Amino acid sequence: MNDLMIYCQGVSKNYRKGKTVITPLEKLDLEVPRGEFLALMGPSGSGKTTLLNLLSGIDSPSEGSLVIAGVELAGLARRDLTKWRAKHVGYIFQLYHLVPVLSAFENVELPLLLSPMSRSERRERVTSVLDLVGLGDRMHHTPSELSGGQEQRVAIARALVADPPLLVADEPTGDLDRESASHILNLLQQLSKEHGKTIVMVTHDPRAAESASRTLHLEKGRLLETV
Ligand SMILES: Nc1ncnc2c1ncn2[C@@H]1O[C@H](COP(=O)(O)OP(=O)(O)OP(=O)(O)O)[C@@H](O)[C@H]1O
């Protein structure tokens, strides 16, 4: 089990809306080895974002066992889950979610501001992840001075800066042209192959899924076999 980043057994998620119960995920089993780049596809409403939220500790399963990086998340209190998340997971959004008035450097620095780290160590970390995503020469630009692809690279640097072993990405290329998308996908591949990051990426684009090492399909809250 040590070589597994994600071990998910019988995981269900229910939401109650008045008398109705919605079950976006039902009895899901999933194993993801460390360093795998997994693509998750499926129609709208099939539970993809719900699954990413569970894997990243934003939400908790209603049932089942969810072990990530050796930690059982199902029983953790919300406060512990938040602490766990800060160390273990980087979240990449379709629309980047950068703070518009901050520079690329300051956006990437944000997750480190609460950690007990010296200013110089912080500066070194931020600079090195911005170099890694190829934006070493743009770190003083604000998001409006960057292209969409560059904004997404800043967002990836922000997700990486605390050095989490797991990256989850919700349609990271959904708002990009083909060339910028291909740069982002190459970068994600590099992060899994060369830096050992485990990546779970939701995508609607079969071309994007081809960059991953495995693709799974969600259908009404259930996982279908590997393609
Ligand atoms: N907080 C919530 N409360 C109630 N229902 C929810 C909640 N979050 C998600 N759902 C429901 O769960 C189902 C799955 O939603 P989810 O966002 O996971 O789908 P998705 O596959 O990511 O869809 P899309 O591709 O459109 O983003 C939907 O029917 C949605 O309405």
Automatic annotation (TrEMBL):
InterPro entries: AAA+_ATPase (IPR003593), ABC_transporter-like_ATP-bd (IPR003439), ABC_transpr_LolD-like (IPR015854), MacB-like_ATP-bd (IPR017911), P-loop_NTPase (IPR027417). Keywords: ATP-binding, Nucleotide-binding, Transport. GO terms for cellular component: membrane protein complex; plasma membrane. GO terms for molecular function: ATP binding; ATP hydrolysis activity; transmembrane transporter activity. This is ABC transporter ATP-binding protein. It comes from Phragmitibacter flavus. Pfam families: ABC_tran. The keyword Transmembrane helix does not apply. Belongs to the ABC transporter superfamily. Macrolide exporter (TC 3.A.1.122) family.
